[in-house]
Amino acid sequence: MKPNILTKDDLLARSRLWPSFAGLAGIVVALVLLGHIYSAVQGSWLGNRWSLTVAASALAATAWSFRKPLVAWLVSLEFSVALLAVLLLATATGTVLLQGQAQEAFDARYGAAFGPFLRLLGFDDIFHSFAFRGLLATLAVSLACVLVDKRAWRPTEWFFLLNHGGIIVVIIGGLAGMLGGAKGFIDIREGQSTSSFAVLDRAGNRTGALQDLGFALRLDKFEVEKVAPEWKFYVYEGHTTTGKPALARGLTEAGEWTRAGHSGASFRVLAVYPDFAVKTGLRELPDGTGKPAAHVKAFDKAGNIEDLVLVPGDDGRSGVLFPETKTLFRFYWNEADVRVRTEGTPPGHLVTWKLAAAPGDGASVTLEIGKERELEGGIRIAATAFYPDFSYDGKKKLATTRSDQPRNPAIELAVTYPSGRTERRYLFSNHRDFDVAGTGNDALAFAYRFRPAEEAPEREVALIGSTREVLDYRKGQLVGRQGLPDKPTEPVAKGVSAMLLGLSPSAEVEHTPFSRSETWKNPVAEVEVRFAGNTEKARVKGGRPIPLGAGDSFLVFQAKLDDIRAFRSRVSINPEGADVKRGTIAVNSPLSFGGYRLYQSNYKKEDPKYSGIQVVKDPGLWVAYLGFGMMCLGVPCRFYLTPWLARRRHIAEKAHG
């Protein structure tokens, strides 16, 4: 093995490398100083492009005076190694340090003492600094000198010319983009036109200046394409409106037990109904433990159909009013129980309650605002406030009413437990699904129905279950009696829009859930929740949370309804002129015109007619593309085609020799 001994040539080569580094260091220092001078005088006659051109010409004339030693240095291997090393070091530094940030952010990152020093050297924006651009220009000049020294215009050196000339062209394109480029932003709404844009600095912040586009741009239409809603089960730990979901499960995972975060509870999905509805029916109880019940189907002139189970003596569920005919239809089991109404009724607030885990419809009670009612087990409830047209102010966190009309009636319900603990919740008449209060086996479920004030009905029709008769009362007086119709498809009485589907002296109400369609109109899911050894079934309405366990974890069945698939601007250029160009600006699909590229940047959810368009001007882009094309052509030709041609030439010379 030969010893690793430095030869005289090695020492000579290294001794020539250090002067190149020293010379480049001087160039970098000069470029940094020139950059600060240019920044200081920018805007005066010394800072305009004509003065820069004169200065560059003077520098070129000086360099020409010392062209022989200067060119010899620029084409040397030592200079190339030193220059590439300095560019590599600058690129690495620009990758490690923050770039293009505001002065405050840069100093906060690197300290109040060290940050200004780095900014003085231009390290806060290396790739746009005067020094870095000067180094790139020096590299281009060095390569140009190499091409001249090698006489690369000869046919035998064309591939060499393509490789090194391509690098020069790329550098020229990059410098042209840095010096003549522009970046800005346009805020525009449908129907508006503009011929300028707000100028952005290198950090992307608005400078307050406007720059002329050279053409007029009008936004004809702004389109937002939303993603089809994908319904999932989310587990929130903490507040469901401000917190992020700790767990998400899709519909394909239904049937599997899933641990719900840190709550200690688990849940599994039993069924999902995109358009939830319930079929109501009666189940006979021969042992007499049930209640008398009539199953009727009522419909109005508009064609709306409601499946009802009427139970005698249950306030709010013993009858139905047909406003168009001012007829009240009620159900009694015995004729002796008939109580004909001769006076109107004030507005009522009917609350149905039951144990959350218990089947059936529960019991109903009428509440007066501000008065408390006691339920079984010592639990007290009260309607503390009534909102005819409920609205909620999210900023003030206050419930209000938009009007006095009962368009969205709701009450605030206070539930007080024997321990003294009180829970408050809002119940909505237009959304009568049971709302659960409390947790565990003692959890209560409530539903609310607002009953507006009613005048005394002109007619009351009473269905007597024991005798299967229909009694007709006018202004409190019995005026007719008849039996039920033989056909179940006929109305129970003339002028009563109701058909009798079932009648029983002892029955239990059955509710069978189903989906009216596969469209997500009224999404509901049935789940099982397991906590502390207990398993309970629950019905989750889309968007409404249910508690999991005894902690602050909630299960929500919801969809991401605001996810955007795409947004685009349909624009016209020079809309008032004879030559109008129309186009579409979309994400990843810019529109080019007049040397500018227009990119779709953003939109505003609160303003569906607004569009944010980014404006970019890069005059050196196609020059850089040309340079890359030259390099892509020159590299394979230099390394593969040149040796092949040399071999062919050698074979030809040998054949003729």
Would you give an account of this structure?
The protein is an alpha+beta fold. It folds into five domains: 8-150, no CATH class; 154-168 and 618-657, no CATH class; 184-215 and 563-617, no CATH class; 228-275 and 516-562; 282-513, no CATH class. The protein is 26% helix and 39% strand. The protein is built from nine helices and 35 strands. The longest helix is centred in the C-terminal third of the chain and has 36 residues, at 621-656. The model is unreliable at 43-48 (pLDDT under 50).
Query: What is the percentage of strand-forming residues?
Result: 35-45%
- Cα(first) to Cα(last) distance is 44 Å
Quaternary structure of the protein: single chain
Task: State the helicity in percent bands.
Answer: 25-40%
Tally of strands = 35
Label the overall shape. elongated
Number of helices: 9
What integer value in Å does the Rg equal?
Answer: 42 Å
Query: Unreliable segments (pLDDT under 50, ≥5 consecutive)?
Result: 43-48
The domain tally reads 5
Chain-wise SSE layout:
Blueprint: H1 8-41, H2 49-65, H3 67-74, H4 77-96, H5 103-110, H6 114-120, H7 130-150, H8 158-180, E1 182-189, E2 193-200, E3 206-226, E4 231-237, E5 245-250, E6 258-259, E7 266-273, E8 276-284, E9 291-299, E10 305-310, E11 319-322, E12 327-332, E13 348-355, E14 363-367, E15 372-374, E16 380-387, E17 390-393, E18 398-401, E19 410-416, E20 422-428, E21 435-437, E22 444-451, E23 459-464, E24 469-474, E25 477-483, E26 498-515, E27 524-531, E28 534-541, E29 546-548, E30 553-559, E31 564-573, E32 581-586, E33 591-593, E34 596-604, E35 607-617, H9 621-656
